[in-house]
Design goal:
By secondary structure, the protein is α+β, with helices and mostly antiparallel strands. The protein is built from 5 helices and 4 strands. Strand 3 and strand 4 form a beta hairpin. The radius of gyration is 17 Å and the shape is elongated.
Length: 115
């Protein structure tokens, strides 16, 4: 819409952050997305992200599962998963929850289905 005579470019439409990421940043984020742990917490490291990580660790301990947890704080990597609201829980490279802090029992139900 050209209400204020601002033109949208193809780069701005294709990028999740409004065109501020370079193609190299997005390629790097996509390449590193598959590396590391089977379970990832996506978020800036705030109290909600830490609470989700603690609930996930508690659920894994109760279930006697030895799965590593990785905390991703890089915005480009988080955006590569398509997540715009954090915290998010990723299991085996699939986003299973985002935008809320899950309780331990909720995490256990998700883990039972996925693992």
């Amino acid at each position: 819409m050209s209400l204020f005579k601002k033109k949208e470019t193809a780069d701005e439409q294709a990028c999740c952050c409004g065109g501020k990421c370079t193609p190299e940043d997005m390629e790097k984020a996509e390449a590193t997305k598959g590396d590391g742990a089977r379970i990832k917490i996506l978020g800036s490291g705030c109290a909600k992200c830490q609470a989700l990580e603690a609930a996930t660790k508690d659920a894994l301990t109760e279930m006697e599962k030895d799965v590593s947890i990785d905390h991703v704080t890089d915005f480009a990597q988080i955006a590569a998963y398509g997540v715009m609201t954090t915290p998010a829980l990723v299991i085996d490279e699939k986003v299973v929850s985002y935008g809320k802090v899950l309780k331990k029992d909720e995490v256990k139900k998700i883990l039972d289905k996925v693992l």
